[in-house]
Amino acid sequence: MRSYIGLIHKEPESDYGVSFPDFPGIATAGTSLDDARQMAEEALAFHVEGMVEDGEAIPEPSSLEQIMADPANMDAVAVLIPLKSQAKKSVRLNITLPEDVLREIDAYAEAHGLTRSGFLAQAAKRQMKDDGNPGNAKGYALSA
């Protein structure tokens, strides 16, 4: 199980904030240190699951030395936060689509804040779910 460094910040009259230098988009807070750590685990897992669904690469954890070398992090306390969810491995593939369909996919994905891979993965999952084919344990349609 991978762990990432979370930085705990505490200002007077505020909750304990947690941020992740390896994931600039994640920030959470808790009323106590234990609560902040729990919220950080949940926020990290949720964010990584979204990245996987969007087909984005999950960064390797930075070292403590790398993170603390940034002067902006000097006032924070570093803690290891385990990534509890199993990030699924993304696999690169080569597919062929008509050019006009690819343009439509890209336009739709961009308009909805998705990557091309993320959109295609969501569309495939939705189609398999809607088909409701009990062909295997995951409900995927099987064909010969």
Helix and strand pattern: EEEHHEHH
- Strand-pairing-aware structural class: alpha+beta
> How many beta-strand segments?
4
CA distance, first residue to last residue: 37 Å
- Major sheet size, sense and barrel closure: 4 strands, antiparallel
* Strand coverage percent: 15-25%
Helicity level: 25-40%
- CATH topology of the largest domain, by name, is Double Stranded RNA Binding Domain
Secondary-structure arrangement, i.e. CATH architecture of the largest domain: 2-Layer Sandwich
Number of helices: 4
CATH class of the largest domain, please?
Alpha Beta
Task: Please tell me what the overall shape is.
Answer: elongated
Strand order of the largest sheet: 3-2-1-4
Number of domains: 2
The whole-angstrom Rg is: 20 Å
State the low-pLDDT regions, or none. Answer: 134-144
Quick check: average pLDDT?
83
InterPro entries: Arc_rbn_hlx_hlx, HicB-like, Ribbon_hlx_hlx, TA_system_antitoxin, TTHA1013/TTHA0281-like
Protein name: Putative RNase H-like HicB family nuclease
Domain HicB-like antitoxin of toxin-antitoxin system: 4-124
Region (Disordered): 125-144
